[in-house]
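Hi P.,

Sorry for the delay on this. The queue was packed all week, but I finally got your sequence through. Input first:
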Amino acid sequence: MRRFTVAERWIHRGTAALLGTTMITAAFLYLPMLSEIAGRRDLLVTVHEWSGLAALVPVLAGLVSRAFRADLVRLNRFGPHDRGWLRATLRRRPHPSGKFNPGQKMYASLAAGAVLVMTGTGLIMWFTSLAPLVYRTGATFVHDWGALLLGALVLGHIWIASNDPEARGGLRTGFVSRAWARRHHELWADSPEE
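Then the structure:
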């Protein structure tokens, strides 16, 4: 079954590469022991700032794709089956879900919100002449804690994905087996137009 189009797969890859670059450079800028190893702080700052801004580009460019827009709608809607999935998951019982389960929907919402907050606070920190010191101080606080939250979310995302080779294959090739789809996304497998 087709799970993702070529455009959707490239949006994911582009966003992952740019956010990964942003997070790695952030670690080298923030952690003293890594800062000492890297040196060239000015270069790291420049790469960090531009990769952070560029991380928005794949998603914005992806809005041209009808399939991507349809998946954004799916990610933005919680239905009765989603509430059932959450209750069943807390009790460690199986429950059908659509193309995206509620865990994926919550991750997408939190990650998107965190990226927007990180971009806004980063811009305040970057263009210091545009904001008073109190705003820059608050932006730094929010940016640092937001980075920690986003890092934890991304590591959790990678951890869960590492335990599902067929899901990773679906993101690499665009296709998953019908058996996998029925096991993990039954409502979508039975009605791909969900």
